[in-house]
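Notes from the 1:1 (GR / supervisor)

We went over the backlog. Supervisor wanted to see one worked example end to end before approving the batch request, so GR pasted a single chain during the call. The sequence is below; no edits were made to it. Supervisor asked that the structure be written out right there so they could see what the output format looks like.
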Amino acid sequence: MAVTSARGMRDFLPRDKEHRDSLLATIGDTYLRHGFEPMETPAMEERDRLHSGLGGDNEKLSFQVLKRGMSVEDLHQATSVDELSDLGLRFDLTVPLARFYASHHASLPSVFRSFHTGPVWRAERPQKGRYRQFVQCDIDILGEESSLAEVEILVATADVLNRLGVKGWSFRVNDRRLLTELLSAAGIAPEDHPSALITLDKLDKVGGEGVLAELSERLPTGWSTELVAAVLGGGAPGFEPSTIAGLMGNTQAARDAAVELVAWVSQVVALLPEDSVVWDPTLVRGMGYYTSSIVEISHPELGGSLGGGGRYDGMIGRFLGKNVPAMGLSLGFERLLDVVPSAPLIHPNRVALVMEGDQGGAAAMVLKMHLVDSGHTVRLVSGSRNMRAVYDRLVADGFSKVADVHGSAGDVRRVEDLIWRELG
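Structure output shown during the call:
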């Protein structure tokens, strides 16, 4: 039997781990420079919190943890999963953030800019690009009512993508209120809006005709296919409030939402290239907790998005008892790895000492301690007949120099006496 990691989970070799850590360090450093503060939550949360209706379809994919002390008899007598589980692995970082803020808001600033990264778990059907354990990188602004939150989050994330060398990305933006007005104008009852939005969100998979066909199956008759088809079939119009409102219902609420959308997008475009932000009238985002602004990061090389988010002003109130304005965006770290250009792994301070002779190890350890104290990363390797293979491995692992250490009467005991050779 092959010895592999659990299905949907992965091991990472040292160089892969180093590359991932380097990217995470760049992401974290950039968000810190933009004023976002690091925080951390446990891998597990109370099951009732994870299944409070805030996680959408992800709640169905959560890994639940069996209660301690459960016996076989308890398992047989249980009539529901609720009786067996009291904890679960987090399936995203937004629900834990809401719980975190409700727990610690008295110790946090009135406007809290958080940076939250870590693994999450979902019982996905494993396939290319989909794993059961993966890393998310979230930034959120809690307590800011104005659209400054949207502007800060998009500008900071653009800085991250640029520092990582990602090319060709763009922000697709929309507003949930515009979608609500469109559905209402088309004669779709409010109680059918959630179902209709789920179908609209399948546009990339089934196309416009497929969306209309599914809506016809799922909705009562009498709604206007023409209004919905106009949105599904058109390109992305520019940022002109009357054009946006006219396409999305042309009600006063649509006009107000369009004006707000254009106002904050204009601030972002003033700081970033104009083509980096595109209005997508069909953008839905699957989570039901979004209340207005929604964002996705698109990339021409990916079938899905690089990340996304939106405003979720009503979510924290479920835990805290009072509403707190909130805006957040999550970077899909695993997908980000696919589009970050790879760079040669060379570290000027990463050096190797080749141990020769019976006493070479003892001499090399003395030198290694001095080199480590002076800021070097040091690897000890044994001399062999096939040193070419040894050097190739060192180069592959990012080592820049090598020196020989002989354990003999004339062995080297001072770093200054080492004779270095360049690798590569």
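Supervisor's comment: The chain has two domains: 14-44+92-339, 347-422.
Batch request approved.
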